[in-house]
Amino acid sequence: MSAPTAPASAPVTRPAASLWKVAAARSVLETKQFFREKGQVIFTFAMPLLMLTLLASIFKQRIGDSGVDAQQIYVTGMLGVGVMSTSFQSMVLQVVGERANGTLKRLRLTPLPKTAYFAGKIAVVLVSSLGQAAVLLGLGTAFFGLHLPTDPARWATFAWVYLLGIVSCTLLGLAYSSVVSPQSAGAMVFLPVIVLQFISGVFVPFNDLPGPLRTVSSFFPMKWICQGMRSVFLPDTFQPYEPGHSWGHGQTALALGAFAVVGLIVCLKTFRWKTRNDG
């Protein structure tokens, strides 16, 4: 008579609650590490504030009969720049640095789930971008004539534009980090971001730009984020100065959603935990 066989053990899976705890712990760690880097914190928060202060103090002309002057446009534009800088720009530089110094390679060998690592990065973006947006809005309302909306629908628009902008730019930053080398990361990030600021309605009213530049900017998220922010904080009298003479919420949501999907697909296919020299 043969000996009874032991029952097969069930596969061990990580409980969802445990995964959330790991992701939350990683988010706290990433956030603490971000704020310990004083230089990065100062640059992230100070650059948009400095640009807003300089531009809004120098240029004050009224835009047609819209009741809006250049100062309010600069505030909304810098909100878009802030989203881009805290998500895309910071994400590329952080991930490229961590890949170069071996941090990603070491993390890949630990039990840390991939989702927990990405959750930590998203948490840093959310905390830093919300803080930056609060400071920009405070500066705009205190010194540059910006009026915060009282209509809840406008704040709902701010929420979805902000979230779609953060998600799309973060995913695009993760994807872009795989094609940037540590030696050229600064130039390959700052140059396109600066160019996009000039053609996305940050410094110049969007409809005043040449047609070809308007077309090029529509293929990047900054244009749509800035347009969405103008629809939240500028009066409806400014709509005639927008593309199509309207805020274009449907097109903005569609464009930012498409950027998020493209960023996710490219990120999943190209993200690397090791440098090319590591094989």
UniProtKB/TrEMBL annotation:
Cellular compartment(s): Membrane
Topology with respect to the bilayer: Multi-pass membrane protein
Keyword terms, alphabetized: Antibiotic resistance, Membrane, Transmembrane, Transmembrane helix
Transmembrane segments: 41-59, 71-97, 118-146, 158-176, 188-206, 253-271
ABC transmembrane type-2 domain ranges (all copies): 39-274
The organism's place on the tree of life at top rank: Bacteria
Name recorded for this polypeptide: ABC transporter permease
